[in-house]
Amino acid sequence: MGGTTELTDVTRDEASLRRFLHGLPGVDAVGLEQRSAGLATRSIKKASKLWAIDTAISMVDLTTLEGADTPGKVRSLCAKARRPDDDVPPVAAVCVYPDLVATAKEALAGSGVNIASVATAFPSGRSTLKVKLTDTEFAIESGATEVDMVIDRGAFLSGRYGQVFDEIRTIKAACGDTHLKVILETGELATYDNVRRASWLALLAGGDFIKTSTGKVSPAATLPVTNLMLQAVRDWHGVTGQHRGVKPAGGIRTTKDAIRHLVAVHEVAGAAWLTPHLFRFGASSLLNDLLMQRRTQLDGHYSGPDYFSVD
């Protein structure tokens, strides 16, 4: 694979883009799953575990994306995001629907915690580009510092790669300096080869992050899929010199799950990705388990879920 000039060439028309995506190496599913299972068995020492927990906390996009969300719930979530517990780093971001971004912005003022908003007809991605742009622009005007967009999986699975590419590129242009995470909804992509193609498509179109899932479809984030996406950003960096991030979202609920993902980040992409700038967890319940396990590491006994607020 060539450098950035060659990558620009592959996006000049639909045929070139299709040729590039279908020319990517096929995924060895058995090898991918075996390596993921092997990484999941790695153990870490107590001192390293505390570092891993704090690192994971700093990578959480604390999320609420329910139809019943209220300004009060978002303010409570933001308070937890700012100060999860005593001597604990704040989380990376709070992720909400566009109409609640202004509430989050007010509640997070001066905290350094990012305000992420889903957009582009989340979670289905099924609407006109005009509607998707309006959705994105409203989120940014309301104060979003990050946008989590969804691709049109129907278009992708139908082979309309140019349409998906153009939509991502258009949304990225509307974002300006606002970071763009591109949700692939890997649970609907059916094959690992499609996950690899969708990852590269999103990177080619300018996504700052590639994200596994909306959290509304099962399966959501799995370790093999996360590993595959980490390979994509590693290889992208190898070709372009640019760092892009990965965000697994949905289904990561325990400290053990989070640490397995951090091990994968280190082993697959490299230590440079062990930062909230390049790796995030999209989660709601994960933070409480991280906090409980942190207390256990420090105090030598299990605190129990009642010690922490319920999201």
From TrEMBL:
Enzyme class: lyase
Keyword field contains Lyase: yes
Keywords carried by this UniProt record: Lyase, Schiff base
Pathway the protein contributes to: Carbohydrate degradation; 2-deoxy-D-ribose 1-phosphate degradation; D-glyceraldehyde 3-phosphate and acetaldehyde from 2-deoxy-alpha-D-ribose 1-phosphate: step 2/2
E.C. numbers: 4.1.2.4
Domain of life per record: Bacteria
Catalytic activity annotation: 2-deoxy-D-ribose 5-phosphate = D-glyceraldehyde 3-phosphate + acetaldehyde
Family per record: Belongs to the DeoC/FbaB aldolase family. DeoC type 2 subfamily.
Name of this chain's protein: Deoxyribose-phosphate aldolase
Species this chain originates from: Actinokineospora diospyrosa
